[in-house]
Amino acid sequence: YQVNQFRNQNRTLTDKLKYFQARHQSVLDISEACLAQQENMFSVKSIEELYDSFYQFLSQYYDVNYLLFFIFVKKRPYEDYKGLRFRKSNSKIQHLFTGLFNHNKPLCDCLQNDYIEFLFGKKACTISSTAVFPVQTELPLGLMIIASREKDRYEHGLALNMLNQLKSIFIEQLFKFIWH
Q: Global pTM?
């Protein structure tokens, strides 16, 4: 009996070790990919190339099926491009996410179905997981929303923190294109 118990414990510990080794390798892979994407974002030549590059990266490493960026401005500096949307300050969408700006941290799977339908329209029924990132300094400047068809895809941790940093670089580069 005790031998079987030790074997079961050994199998359980071996399985846990394999899980953590695979997870560790996954984090290393994402870290390397994030560094490469960071370099790539500094080398793009247009807003369209910046957005497309970021979306392609997110699709590959974060299973993102939909990407929305809302930038709140007084006057529209640029035409909307795919999921990159410029909205007036104090717009309805900005007011919907006031709590997120007060929290100032990414939130996973926090969007209610009404919000998902409002944001994604007909695509809403295909979305199973979301993450929302505020974009702000001292004032709310916007938000980034990623969505996946994969259920429970996003969770807080190192990978989401790295993505939050890449979001900041994306915004920095976007502003360089718009206002410089």
A: 0.82
